[in-house]
Write a structure and sequence with these properties.
92 residues; 78% helix; elongated; 5 helices
Length: 92
């Protein structure tokens, strides 16, 4: 039993170490986006056009790690800033 728990914690720690680089990169990019993008630019890029707004939103949303707990607040924030439904869905 102790060997099993030791193995589980060892594998979990290994997985955390392997994914930490990608998580930190995503957090850095999302922090930079939050710092340099104001709501008017989000509304300008994500509200007009069907194809271009979805393409821009999907490209900006790729590096940002969102878990199931952060998806709804992010969608609400994008909609409040003026993004259309397609762009909001593509960003998530």
């Amino acid at each position: 039993m102790i060997y099993f728990l030791d193995n589980v914690f060892s594998q979990a720690w290994s997985l955390l170490l392997e994914s930490s680089v990608y998580i930190l990169f995503g957090l850095l990019v999302s922090g930079l986006l939050h710092m340099f993008l104001n709501p008017s630019s989000v509304a300008r890029h994500f509200s007009k056009g069907r194809f271009r707004s979805v393409l821009k939103a999907s490209l900006l949303g790729i590096p940002i790690p969102l878990c199931s707990c952060g998806v709804l607040p992010a969608a609400v924030a994008l909609r409040k800033q003026g993004a259309n439904r397609g762009a909001t869905t593509a960003f998530l």
